[in-house]
Write a structure and sequence with these properties.
This protein has about 300 residues and is α/β, with parallel strands linked by helices. The chain has 2 domains: about 1-115 and about 240-310, FAD/NAD(P)-binding domain; about 115-235, 3-Layer(bba) Sandwich (FAD/NAD(P)-binding domain), CATH 3.50.50.60. The chain is about 20% helix and about 25% strand. It has helices spanning about 10-20, 60-70, 135-140, 155-165, 185-190, 290-310; strands at about 1-5, 30, 75, 80-85, 90-95, 100-110, 115, 130, 145-150, 170-175, 195-200, 200-210, 215-220, 225-230, 235, 240, 250, 250-255, 275-280. The strands form 5 sheets. Strands 1, 2, 3, 4, 5, 6 and 19 form a 7-stranded mixed sheet that branches. A 5-stranded parallel sheet has the order 8-15-9-10-11. Strand 5 and strand 6 form a beta hairpin. The protein starts with a strand and ends with a helix.
């Protein structure tokens, strides 16, 4: 039986593996079908990880992590996990693709989430080259420039407000004339002189070139006309696909899940199910930053070690 099964090989999963094995656990396996690294590997520039002063792409940034995190005995199994289930004796069964199963005393789930795509022309072509889903990650690249934000929920409103601290102007585009965000946040945005609301509108196209990236955004207005915003960047916030499928046993989740799909945890990354931990973008209120995900993984591993000790 495994001491700890870690599901997901991004910063949270790798960090959990490092702390669990360095902490003395001998039988720890990280299940990640592809190469470890997570979403950050698709980022073109990584410059806000404390202690790493060199600006580099996400793939280069993550490349040393696997070697370091496996140094103390973490095993990487290239297999997809289909589900996690709780056994009557308190242990867990991990069902892999193809029907193979593993047993574990504790499980740390770090499967993350992926931003939903808005579906406009040019979104995929310029993703990471002017189309972004993270203002904290990429806002600095547009210092004193104009940018666009798409969305009408709390995240879109908060990120638009955040971008006004960096950018000269923010165009906030929303398909309706009312917002789903908290009224107090909406009022703040309406009073912010740096934000121009473009309501009852959709993105028709993002355009640019392969070298310079995004050069502008064509917005379709309510009357059918097109407004051309000459901006080098657009941030889209139209929701998240939380990758919580592995926590579903039959038609029920094995732990408490919030309406957003994120997993409910405490400060120790413990879910409502003893021995089951969630870390990184999967857990509630995740800030979606590499440094936070790595910290989550460390916390979850330390908590898992304490849980395993309590079994004896």
């Amino acid at each position: 039986m495994l001491d700890v099964a870690i599901i997901g090989g991004g910063p949270a999963g790798l960090s959990a593996g490092l702390y669990a094995t360095r902490g003395g656990l001998k039988n720890v396996v990280m299940f990640e079908k592809g190469m470890p690294g997570g979403q950050i590997t698709s980022s073109s520039e990584m410059e806000n990880y404390p202690g790493v002063a060199t600006v580099m792409d996400g793939m280069s940034f993550m490349s040393p992590w696997l070697e370091q995190c496996t140094r103390f005995g973490l095993k990487h199994e290239m297999a997809a996990v289909e589900k996690v289930s709780k056994n009557s004796d308190g242990s867990f069964t991990i069902t892999l693709e193809g029907g193979k199963t593993e047993q574990a005393k504790a499980v740390i789930v770090c499967t993350g989430s992926t931003p939903k795509r808005a579906g406009f022309k040019g979104e995929d072509e310029f993703f990471g080259k002017g189309v972004s889903t993270c203002a904290t990650c990429d806002g600095f690249f547009y210092k004193n420039k104009e940018v666009a934000v798409l969305g009408g929920g709390d995240t879109a409103i908060e990120e638009a407000e955040y971008l006004t601290r960096i950018c000269s102007k923010v165009y906030l585009i929303h398909r309706r004339d009312t917002f789903r965000a908290a009224p107090s946040s909406v009022e703040k945005v309406k009073k912010n002189e740096k934000i121009e609301l473009i309501l009852n509108a959709t993105i028709d196209e993002v355009y640019g070139d392969s070298t310079a990236g995004v050069k502008g955004v064509k917005v379709k207005l309510a009357d059918g006309s097109i407004r051309d915003l000459v901006v080098p960047g657009i941030f889209t916030f139209v929701g998240l696909n939380v990758r919580n499928e592995v926590l579903k046993d039959g038609d029920k989740f094995i732990c408490d899940i919030l309406p957003s799909g994120q997993v409910k945890v405490d400060l120790k990354m413990q879910t409502s199910t003893p021995g089951l931990f969630a870390a990184g973008d999967l857990r509630q209120d995740a800030p979606k930053q590499v440094v936070s995900a790595a910290a989550d993984g460390a916390v979850a591993a330390l908590s898992a070690m304490s849980y395993i000790e309590s079994l004896h």
